[in-house]
Specification:
Layout: H1 5-17, H2 22-70, H3 79-90, E1 96-106, E2 114-125, E3 136-147, E4 150-159, H4 167-184, E5 193-200, E6 204-205, E7 216-217, H5 244-249, E8 269-271, E9 291-293, E10 304-307, H6 310-318, H7 328-337, E11 355-364, H8 383-402, E12 405-412, H9 422-425, E13 432-435, H10 441-453, E14 456-458
Parallel strand pairs: 4-5, 4-11, 7-9, 11-12, 12-13
Antiparallel strand pairs: 1-2, 2-3, 3-14, 5-10, 6-8, 8-9
Helix pairs in contact: 2-3, 4-6, 4-10, 7-8
InterPro entries: Tad_N, vWFA_dom_sf
Organism: Bradyrhizobium canariense
Transmembrane segments: 21-42
Length: 459
């Protein structure tokens, strides 16, 4: 059939206006970049997975080499070979190729610690990026294990309250002394590992030898404390053990006339200092920042400032006995203060060439029941009162952790369940231990000791 000129022109016009075939053309044009983007995401994901696995293997290899070297199982000359062997055994990613690893040792210099530094690299064959001209994707990682420069400053904050009687305090003493032996063995030279011991009940005992300390406050002190058997000096309406500071802090009236008593009658106890200094490391200067001398009749064993003498630490632990209500906050506060190079306890100076790990281990067998302002020292106080005490303690925990101090909390259940504050106080969930039986105390302290003594890996 022959088209007339007019029919041909009409047909060509319709063809020029027809867009139905453009979709296939557009799809063909966009298919390549779409596939490239999707393929790149897949290839990069594979490379990231391989790199993550390599990092984990390298960290473990660096730790193993450093431990073997520090234990004398290998020599410095064997570090490169041992590092490569450990890494090869640990890195099993099947998609990696051209994998290389190296290890170097740097001896302790100027107290900065000995190090094993490892590096590793590899590549994966790309499945999609080849289209864009990248046949392989490279990756590399590094890890450094440092030891010998992490010196330990550890505060043992230990519950000495009345509910700790019998096997509880006996097992606590054994576990604490075992921990001192375990961590003390890490010391290469005297002072590498130091301990303070803070026995606590409703108050802490700083010792009568501190009677002339300028950081003590005496305006809330009376040499007489409440005697439940005969005397009643506090208008609390109940036969109570409150001393003057506790009585007034709770808003009651102290009826005994203090006069001008001799401070030689002081039993060494202090209670919480004024809020909010009770949860801070502010230096004691003016009255509100000073530590309140108390006459708590259930004054616990005298605390011990930081020392590296294991026998002194153990004798302090052995002197502990069970009496009084539970003020975890004041125990933790003095545990923190014992690690600071300032009044009131003036921890030993720290060498700028070393790295110091500051650790607090807080053990208790129950809930907070009292402080200077709230609670009656037993679980008969209202949950609202106990909540106020826990709120103070949580503020203190936050302040302590903000100053690069690691906190472990250990709770022995007294039948009241998990504390509202102790899990949050710990430096992470792995640092909180909930125990159901006194026989578990030693295992918990052993686990804490292992955690503290692990070599530090820095990347």
């Amino acid at each position: 059939m022959t088209l007339s000129p007019s029919s041909a022109a009409t047909t060509l016009g319709r063809l020029a206006r027809d867009e139905r075939g453009n979709i296939a053309v557009i799809f063909a044009i966009t298919l390549l970049p779409v596939l490239s983007f999707v393929g790149a995401a897949i290839d990069y994901s594979r490379a990231a997975h391989a790199r993550t696995a390599m990092q984990g293997a390298l960290d473990s290899a660096a730790l193993m080499v450093a431990k073997n070297l520090s234990d004398g199982k290998i020599t410095a000359d064997q570090v490169p070979t041992a590092g490569a062997a450990y890494f090869a055994a640990l890195y099993t990613h099947t998609g990696s190729q051209n994998v290389k690893a190296s290890a170097t040792y740097t001896a302790n210099n100027g107290g900065k610690g000995s190090t094993v530094t490892m590096a590793a690299s590899g590549e994966i064959k790309s499945q999609f990026m080849q289209i864009a001209g990248f046949p392989t994707l490279d990756f590399s990682v590094g890890s450094t294990s440092t030891w010998g420069n992490n010196l330990l400053r550890i505060a043992l904050v230990l519950d000495n309250t009345g509910s700790m009687g019998g096997t509880k305090i006996s097992n606590l003493k054994t576990a604490s002394k075992n921990l001192v032996d375990k961590l003390g063995a890490l010391a290469k030279t005297p002072g590498d590992v130091m301990f303070s011991v803070i026995p606590f009940a409703s108050a802490v005992n700083v010792g009568i030898d501190k009677v002339s300390a300028t950081w003590l406050r005496w305006d809330l002190w009376d040499p007489r404390s409440e005697d439940s058997s005969s005397n009643s000096y506090c208008s609390s309406g109940r036969s109570s053990w409150y001393a003057m500071a506790m009585c007034k802090g709770h808003g009651y009236t102290w009826s005994h006339s203090v006069g001008s008593p001799s401070t030689s009658n002081w039993n060494g106890c202090v209670t919480d200092r004024d809020q909010s200094y009770d949860v801070s490391d502010a230096l004691p200067s003016a009255l509100t920042t000073q530590f309140v001398a108390d006459q708590d009749p259930y004054c616990p064993a005298k605390l011990l400032a930081l020392t590296s003498t294991a026998s002194t630490v153990k004798s302090t632990i052995d002197a502990m006995s069970a009496n009084g209500g539970t003020n975890q906050t004041i125990g933790l506060h003095w545990g923190w203060l014992s690690l600071l190079q300032q009044a009131p306890l003036n921890a030993p100076a720290e060498d700028v060439n070393n790295v110091y790990q500051h650790v607090i281990i807080l053990f208790t067998d129950g809930q907070n029941t009292v402080n200077r302002w709230n609670g009656d020292g037993s679980m008969t106080s209202s949950s609202t009162e106990r909540g106020k005490i826990d709120t103070r303690m949580e503020a203190l925990c936050t302040a302590v952790k903000a100053k690069n101090t690691t906190i472990y909390t250990v709770q022995l259940d007294d039948g009241t369940g998990v504390s509202p504050v102790l899990p949050k106080c710990a430096s992470g969930s792995a640092n909180f231990f909930m125990l159901s039986n006194p026989s578990e105390i030693d295992a918990a302290f052993t686990q804490i000791g292992t955690s503290i003594s692990k070599l530090r890996v820095s990347k």
